[in-house]
Amino acid sequence: MQLTSPTKEIQMTLPEFNNEKLFRQALTHRSYVNENPSYREEDNERLEFIGDALLTFLSGEYLYQRHSEMGEDQMTRRRSALVDEKQLARFAIEIGLDIRMRLGKGAHREGGITNPNLLSSTFEAFIGAYYLDTQDMDKVRKFVRQMFDSVPENVVETRSTVDSKNRFQEWVQANVGTTPPKYVTVQAGGTPHAPEFLAKVCVADKEFGEGKGRSKKDAEKNAAEDALARLKKRGLI
């Protein structure tokens, strides 16, 4: 998959880490750990969890401060475009994480260094590790904002209009209430290097849709699309 896109000219370098173990962990995919039983350090999945939360917050803050004219719905769509899988994969490539990722041989043979899901997950883990290393949100904010500044407005606008999770959330807010949709995702098959995930989306404990995908994000997107399709079939949208 081609991940290059028009971006503003920026000069980004990897920030220095005090704790090299954290940096190494951020780059270590579970396939590497699985293929090296003697390796005693963690993979990057827990760091990915932290990084995802940080990027969601920082992208929302970024848009809130930069665009006083925007309402909640528009900011939600743009936030999704700034931190979706393809965009985070591009960020990872821009700072050289693709050539630094530690993958198992199988994942590497299957094109792991160009896989948008692995790249975006590594970028999230990197942000989580950087925060834990510095314990300084201002440093993380400065670094992330440079990345966001590199994304042209027209790219954000074009991609934000097609996000199914946001469209479903907007419908929920307008027709159900303030409780956001909840996605429950589990691995449902596939191989260690190419897993398949199943996601279900619920609102107030009521299931609205389900979907499958090669990544958790794809499965959740497909679950949202299924929910929208069901609503359309019932004449609710």
UniProtKB/TrEMBL annotation:
Domain RNase III positions: 3-135
InterPro entries: dsRBD_dom, RNase_III, RNase_III_dom, RNase_III_sf
Family: Belongs to the ribonuclease III family.
GO cellular component: cytoplasm
Reaction catalyzed: Endonucleolytic cleavage to 5'-phosphomonoester
Entry EC no(s): 3.1.26.3
Named cofactor requirement(s): Mg(2+)
GO molecular function list: double-stranded RNA binding; metal ion binding; ribonuclease III activity; rRNA binding
Location(s) in or outside the cell: Cytoplasm
Keyword Transmembrane helix: no
Subunit and partners: Homodimer.
Classification via NCBIfam families: RNaseIII
Function comment: Digests double-stranded RNA. Involved in the processing of primary rRNA transcript to yield the immediate precursors to the large and small rRNAs (23S and 16S). Processes some mRNAs, and tRNAs when they are encoded in the rRNA operon. Processes pre-crRNA and tracrRNA of type II CRISPR loci if present in the organism.
Gene Ontology terms: biological process: mRNA processing; regulation of gene expression; rRNA processing; tRNA processing
Binding site for Mg(2+): 48, 121, 124
Assigned keywords, A-Z: Cytoplasm, Endonuclease, Hydrolase, Magnesium, Metal-binding, mRNA processing, Nuclease, RNA-binding, rRNA processing, rRNA-binding, tRNA processing
Organism: Tychonema bourrellyi FEM_GT703
Entry's transmembrane regions: none
SMART domains xrefs: DSRM, RIBOc
Record-annotated DRBM domain positions: 163-233
Protein name, entry field: Ribonuclease 3
Active site feature: 52, 124
SUPFAM superfamilies, alphabetized: dsRNA-binding domain-like, RNase III domain-like
Listed CDD domains: DSRM_RNAse_III_family (cd10845), RIBOc (cd00593)
